[in-house]
Specification:
By secondary structure, this protein is α/β, with parallel strands linked by helices. The protein folds into two domains: about 1-120, Rossmann fold (3-Layer(aba) Sandwich); about 125-220, Arc Repressor Mutant, subunit A, CATH 1.10.10.10. It has nine helices and 13 strands. The strands form four sheets. A five-stranded parallel sheet has the order 2-1-3-6-7, sandwiched between helices. Strands 8-9-10-11 form a four-stranded antiparallel sheet. Strand 9 (about 130-135) and strand 10 form a beta hairpin. The protein is elongated. About 30% of the residues are buried. Bound molecules: calcium ion. Calcium ion binds next to strand 4. The site of calcium ion has 5 residues, from strand 4.
Amino acid sequence: MRFLLVEDSPVLARSVRDLLALDGHGVDHAATLAEAEDCLASASYDLMLLDIGLPDGDGRGFLARQRRAGRDMAVIMMTARSAVADRVDALDGGADDYVSKPFEMAELEARIRAVLRRRGGAAQTLRHFAGVAFDPLAATVTIAGETRDLRARELRLFEILLAAPGRIFSKDHLCDRVFSYAECVSDNAIEVYVGRLRRKLAGSAARIETVRGLGYRLTGP
Ligand code: CA
């Protein structure tokens, strides 16, 4: 999917962009509303992540103008403001959802998935790998006509591995991205989810290989 990230904090922009890129999304970054306008004029996006306080104006007014101009992409506002009125404003102004800064990357990913699911983008996000039809929005894998549900962390783990088949992901890296900090107490946690995911993928040619001392990688036939 193609995302537009409108955010003037370089640090936050980089971490959000890296996260989405690892999930296999294309991300264009705009640091001002003027840059965002240029991006929207030259490309179409599935989803826009939009800050409220930007150097050249207010994201809410910008969004309202985009909606009036007929731009229908999904929008999640990123707000540092905690007042209920600001959140209501964001939603009234045409946002699908919002996240309050500071937010966990896992929360942002969950909200993105939820928004895209509500908008029914499933057909364009269905992915195929080694006999597995993976639908991240429905949280299912279908193998030889049999559909199996994935739990949230199995889904997350599969998305990460599937973004780069053949690449070795360390346990630490997977742990950081699958669990929140507090949960990531031992290597065993990730082993448990790898084991579950392997069972869900049984019957396909997709394998999660253990690379001794290094981590895991997804391989096909
Ligand atoms: Ca800002």
